[in-house]
Amino acid sequence: MEVVIVPDAKAGGELIAQSIVDLLGRKPDALLGVATGSSPLPIYQALTAKVKGSGMDVSRARICQLDEYVGLPAGHPESYRATVLREVVEPLGLTEASFFGPDGSAEDVQGACEAYDKALAEAGGVDLQILGIGTDGHIGFNEPCSSLASRTRIKTLTQQTIDDNARFFDGDTAQVPRHVITQGIGTILDARHLVLLATGEGKAEAVAQTVEGPLSALVPASALQLHPHATMVVDEAAASKLKLADYFRHTYANKPVWQGI
Prior knowledge:
hydrolase; allosteric enzyme; 16% strand; Rossmann fold; glucosamine-6-phosphate deaminase activity; Glucosamine-6-phosphate deaminase
C-alpha cells in the first residue's frame, strides 16, 4: 500500500486534489467517487480552487456517491446527495446530470442497492474513489466484521454513529435515519484508484491496523491491502503509530515527481 505522510489536512487535500486534476487532464470524463463528512472537505476545497484558478474545463467529469441515508425525503438538506451537490458538484460548476448515487427513498431498498452496483459498472467503473476512515477502521458504512466481498447493500447504523451524526440534525438523535445504503467493500475495491485521507491522532490506531496489521474483517479498511493502487494520505498525527513511518517518508520523498500519487 502506498502511504504518503503530510504535515496537515490542508497539505493532504492539496496533494489529492492535484491527483484528481491530473486524472481529469488525462481523462476528462473520469468518474470520481466521493465521500461525505469532515475528512474530505480539504480535498474538495483545494480541488475547487485549482479548477477555478486554472480555468480548467471539467464539464465532462462525473461524480458518484459512496453511501446514502435510507428514508429521508428527496431534497432533504442532510441527505448525502444534497451534501455532495453542495460541497462538490455545485462548487465545480457541474450540473446535477453529472452526478448519481443510490436511491435512499426507494420502496425497494434492496433493488436500489443492486441497481446502483449495476449503474457503476455500466458507467465504466470508478476511476478514483475518495475514502475516509473511522476510528474502528470502517470505510463507507462497512462496520467491523463486514464481509470483505460485500456489494452495495443496506446497513443498520450503530448507536455511536447515530449519536455522532445527530449534530447534523439539530442534535436530535430521533431525526437521524437508522439505515443507510453503502457501497460494499467489494464494490469499493472495484475502483481503479483508492485514495484515503486520514488526519488526527484519533485515527492513528486505525491507520496502523489498516496499513501494517493483518487483513481482517475486524478492520474493514485493511481490505485496501488487496488493491493494486491504494493510497493512504495521512498527517503526522494519524501516522504516529506506524512502525514504518520513516520508510514511508523516505519512499515518497524520493519518488519521481511525475508519478504523483
